């Protein structure tokens, strides 16, 4: 009968059980944070992440389904063939107006 009336403060197992409970809560919180990461392999969303935008060390990470691709910038200007097609202006209401070189105007709604 003495074991039933023993103080909990004197029992070392009660503090060990409390530590296990704390660690279980921490592990559960970390698993939830991992599952909500947009680049997680558990999510099927398509995600594009741009790191250091506009800088020479810019990186683009693209996730489609379970496939993740990473593109790194070399910091050099791109080159190619082409010509100027016109000018685009952003209006006060958020829409864009494209003015081609030949003078035709088209309004492109913003997404």
Automatic annotation (TrEMBL):
Q: Which Pfam families match?
A: DUF2149
Q: Keywords in UniProt for this one?
A: Membrane, Transmembrane, Transmembrane helix
User: Mind telling me which residue stretches traverse the membrane in this protein?
Assistant: 16-35
Q: Does the keyword Transmembrane helix apply?
A: yes
Would you say which domain of life the source belongs to? Bacteria
UniProt name for this protein: DUF2149 domain-containing protein
Organism of provenance = Psychrosphaera algicola
